[in-house]
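Render this sequence as a predicted structure.
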Amino acid sequence: MLTESAATGSYLGTLAFFLVITVFAVYINKSLYTGDLKKRTETYVTARNTQGTIAISLSFFASGAGAWVLFTVPEAAILGGPVALIGYILSCLVPVAMFGCIGPYMRRNLPSACTFFEYIQARYGTVVNVYCTFVSLFYMLLYLSAEFTSVGSCVTALSDLTSPLGPVIATSIVTLVYTSIGGLPVSIFTDKVQGVGIFIFTILVCVASFAFYELPTETNDEAIRANWEMVTTWGIGGSASNSFKMAFVLISAVTCANLMHSGFQQRIWAAAGDTQVRRGAIGGILLTIPFMTLFGVVGMIAFAHYGKPGLVEVGPERTYLAFLAAFFLIGEMPAAWQALAIVLAVMLVASSADTLQTGVAALLKPITAKALDFYKTGTSDNTRLLVSVNFVFAAAIVNIPAIVLSTAGVSVLSLFVMADLVCATCVVPLLMGLSDRTHPVAAAAGCFAGLVTALIIYLVGVNGENGDQPMRMLVQAGGLYSDTSLVAFLVVPGASFLATALTNIPFMMKGYRFKGFKKPAGEEKVPAAGEGV
């Protein structure tokens, strides 16, 4: 294993590299510090109409490719085989595809927005928007905590470093510093560098592990061949129904969660035009498919060599370790590969963390702007103060609690289950708002019904009897793939939909139609592709 000093050098060196290139990016991007203050702030927060297809493609890819893939993708492949792996891949592709489809509608109707929350405010009003804002903040807090947990676990699992606090705090500070310096343009710039680096390092580390461990052949040990056959059919679940159940849960859970991710939403308005949004979504999808497939194969090879006694049901207490499958492989490889794996993990976390931090700042922009209206004097628009307040909030509301939670020893997987379930309470009403027949009261009823249903299921999942493992599994390792999760991600969106549809019937009978979005003066026309670059 790597020594403590080598591990420290690996993660600090990677972070230092990104800090240096972001300072360079800010220096060459003169629009961030020259010209009209209001325009500079607009560029800083939204990067509106400035990013081409390649930038949006790499940004969608890098922003979604967090260090969670090192834990959850190999585990899914082990538990549910190729079908579950395909389900996991689709779960990451579907929300990006939806952004590509919804993006032009959002840009056309809300050209001055920077997240879906301006859309929710204009479409449904303050009550629904406040609820959805809190859901998004809660989700991004847990997502960031899961990423910090992942980077700490990666470094300690591959080295003699015993405390995860160092890499967690270093990653948090560096990403917050460079997003504070350059805002969204710098976040997208680092996404381009990180996206390329993640793709190359993933190929290097995964192919090296394939070469280091023999693939099953006729000359292999019989146990290796048997494990390989098991994991490449239906996984250790042993049935097609289990594999397809896992695939459905993943698609439902991850789609609901990512649609509430304001960092992803920002890319819609940062794109130079509708074409760039669509092509960028396609590019992000094409990069994600091989990336996730490689980690799925890593999980399969790990199970072939270590099997159930090594990865599942370990020791007298039947300890569950399938989520550490990638580290079983990488941990046995020469130290140089472990250093590369740490560099990859830091890039994965940094690419997600800076997107989350700029997403929080954008999410809070309308709230802080209204609050600062009380303090305006003369002709000052307080734009500089607005930016400062946003990033203070990003640090206080998201980063600090995420660091605390990441060092509390909470399972990364259980964090994602909780976050995904909360997001499932409001995604359906949000999408139903694309129809002009859905009334705000109906949307509020749908969100409330989804929340009540989620709380009931989650409380049962936490407090179920000891003998009722399918219920208790919701908050334990592997809980995302339990029967309770299947119920949760069927019933919660379903309850939200039914409540919205039923409550909306009286309004439809009265002929309700949404009157359309109001555009600020001077924004009646749709921005042309490339306008403002």
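Summary. Residues 165-212 form the longest helix (48 residues). Residues 465-472, 524-533 have pLDDT under 50 and may be disordered.
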